[in-house]
Automatic annotation (TrEMBL):
It comes from Streptomyces cellostaticus. GO terms for biological process: arabinan catabolic process; xylan catabolic process. Residues 827-943 form the CBM6 domain. The lineage of its organism: Bacteria, Bacillati, Actinomycetota, Actinomycetes, Kitasatosporales. GO terms for molecular function: alpha-L-arabinofuranosidase activity; beta-glucosidase activity; carbohydrate binding; xylan 1,4-beta-xylosidase activity. This is Exo-alpha-(1->6)-L-arabinopyranosidase. InterPro entries: Actin-crosslinking (IPR008999), BXL (IPR044993), CBM6 (IPR005084), Cellulose-bd_IV (IPR006584), Fn3-like (IPR026891), Galactose-bd-like_sf (IPR008979), GH (IPR017853), Glyco_hydro_3_C (IPR002772).
Amino acid sequence: MTVHSPTTPPFRDPHLPFAKRIDDLLARLTLDEKVSFLHQYAPAVERLGIAAFRTGQEALHGVAWMGPATVFPQAVGLGATWNPDLVRRIGEAVSKEARAMRARDDRVGLNVWSPTVNLLRHPLWGRNEEGYSEDPKLTSAIATAYTQGLRGDHPTYWRTAPVLKHWLAHNNETDRATSSASVRPRVLHEYDLRAFKKTVEAGAVAGVMPAYNLVNGRPNHLSPYLRTHLRAWTDQDLLVCSDAGAPTNLVDAEHYFDTHEEATAAALLAGVDSFTDHGTDAAQITARVKGALEQDLLAEADIDTAVRRHLSVRFRLGEFDPHYDPHRGTGEFDTPAHRALAQEAAEQAVVLLKNDDDLLPLAPDTRLAVVGLLADECKLDWYSGSLLHRSTPLEGLYDRFGAERVDFAEGVDRIRLRTPSGAFLHVPPTDAPDEARGTEAALDPALLSGRTDLPPLTTDPTGTEFALADWGEGILTLRSPDGRYLSVAEDGYVRASADQPGGWVAQETFRLETHQNGHLLKHLGTGRHICVAADGVKVAEAGDFFEVITMERGEEAVARAAAEADVVLVVAGNDPHINGRETEDRTTLSLPAHQQRLLRAARAANARTALILVSAYPYAVDVSRLPAVLWTAHGGQAAGSALARVLAGDVSPAGRLPQTWYESDADLPELLDYDVIGARQTYLYFEGTPLFPFGHGLSYASFSYADVSARAADTAVHVSCTITNTGDRPAAEVAQLYTRAADPSVTRPRRELLDHRRVTLSPGERAELAFEVPLPAFGFWDVRQGRWRLENGPYDLLLGASSEDIRLHTTLILDGEPPAPRAVTRRGLEAADFDEQSGIAIVDRTKTAGDAVTPTEGGSAELVYRSCDFGNGVSEVTAQLAGEGVLELSLDGGPALAELTLHTPTADAYAYTTLAADLATKGLHDVHLRLRGPLRLAHVGFSG
């Protein structure tokens, strides 16, 4: 029995279980104190000696927004490594740096909002850089590894507490706060939920963050799946943290509720425990919660439930046991081991897409031309920390091959801007030290462009020659000769002040608008135009006209450098703060026109031209005349040195594509079409020919696959094979195991990743690989029965180097359940459980649970339900309907046999009424339902 000191409350006793300590602490808190804990910035409770606590610390690929830290490759680059062990070690390093940074700055949080496990379903998603893969199995494997590293391996105390983003089915920035993803049950269970499930079950997840968007007409912050799925996967307390501003969106943007009290209560009851809203000002959220309590929309027990989850995280982080917390003294920050790990990760993230005629690796005496807008850049993104170290491709190649063997041409256009008076825009000299930005700017990316200590641009007779880069769709950056980007601060003046484009709204982007008298220069951050005033160049509603004097075209410099080289390396890609990022989706897969011109100029001057894409997402590029193509995500602090080592052959590339690269925009579905099955999306269902398939990646070595063996046991399928390095150098291979149902009763994936192994072999070395795949991995969500089902029959097992490069093939007969018809006389038809549809959107049946369907934009739509068993016969059909319109029923594609009409609109979209009609049928049929008008259908029943 534990004996408590009279002055030590039980919640301070480290020998008691956390649950008992939380019970004790909850009992000591007043209602007002408990309510205050529901905001992101929970205040201190001084009378109990409890410190303030902030949920949320970004740590997607290193500690972000808190100043210098080790910067690892972007998440999509970590996905390209296909290496969970590496990613786990990165998670460990990131969490150790978070602890070390917190020791000197208590603003650094330990509740980390990472990783992002949203699937990379659509390559135009602006936040593609934040996810790991389009495949749920690979995503879950990488995410699990990262969370395990972030958590640490102590059985009781966590180094950091990871929160997964973003629950659920979130893949668009366009209208992200108001758009609804229509997710049919099979896609929900087989695709979107799977990315979260295994990671949560692994036990290193502290919570999740709901996404901004709606799913099936219901905001994610009210998702019933938080209760029915997420919290059913684990017996640990999970903290659900809202996304920033999303609670207010429930009323202001989404108009889902009339009052904020209703909205806040509904979110809390759905399972949201921490409200991220109104920045550090908790007053509005706490007032809403108190208002909901006064209106009996909430009970104190509901508050207790949320606060318990909040406290559970804080206890696990060791806050209340400082003398027992094994991580409290962690001081590992920017260590040699962390720098080496960043280098290793950047090397493993490089994917060799094409290598004809063995152009790569480069011979030591090769004379190189390194060209392109990304050639001398080490770009950061919104979720990066500040660089402690920096390596660009050019710097890496200088170090590896010698500066005397490398010629550089950035490929920017060199221009001057002349005013109608004949003067030119001019960057005045300055003696202001670079450190003048101060500590706050180093801590906040949004302040990088905010310098006001430098003089604004002026005009003079000769002007400044600017480097103009067009990043696509006419979005320009302008850079002065000293390397500073033109930027606009809050005072509206234009200065050469920014190291890079950045901030929540980039202030370094412009557009030239053609007019008869020249060009207007529009500043995109403010939407205003540039004008010349007596006190300097500034933005204004009415801008001045400028004549653009082109001193040199970028392709001219590229062509000169390319003509003198043995090999040309064109480094192209994106700036993560421009054209595709949080709040902004891309509009095309195409490489920006400026960079296409540079590539054409290099290739015309020298056939031995390799394209190196450094980007956060795939491109559609004509590679037919290029002998070599590589891709890497923005690789963090070691990006350039890693790329140089791969190009030189010091490291054989072994990265693999984590998502499909399509040939053109025509291969893509609509951005908001979340039905991966019906729209044939991702490698799972895509029936076209990709530019490069999922899992693709070449090596400088070669590997043979042999000796495939497969057998089914009671709970798992066991598969093995041997792989031999038949090349002349050590290299890593990523062996990929896929399956496909050979004779399915419903649409199944063309192939589906079951497992993979990354193995490094010396020349001639052989390894035996063994895979154990649980039998449920071969199942699918059977909408006819509303559950998972393993179907009996043949399953192909495919082993190879990518989803399309299959080297070994065998087939197993698995014992499962035979297909069964829909028992419609017993269960009826849930409207969303269709097999096929056209023109349908899935919507919320009620505001708290369930799905219904409705025609998109109030038109007409059709649903098909296959294999419906009417038994010995029925005589009546009933339908739960809301809104107004007509429902027609036919069988097997024949004429309409029943018609149900809502002539008078129901009171609202959730006021369902049941209509009935005669229907005489028996036996097995396909049911076709046609909906016309703004009609909601929830359920169809049959009786007789």
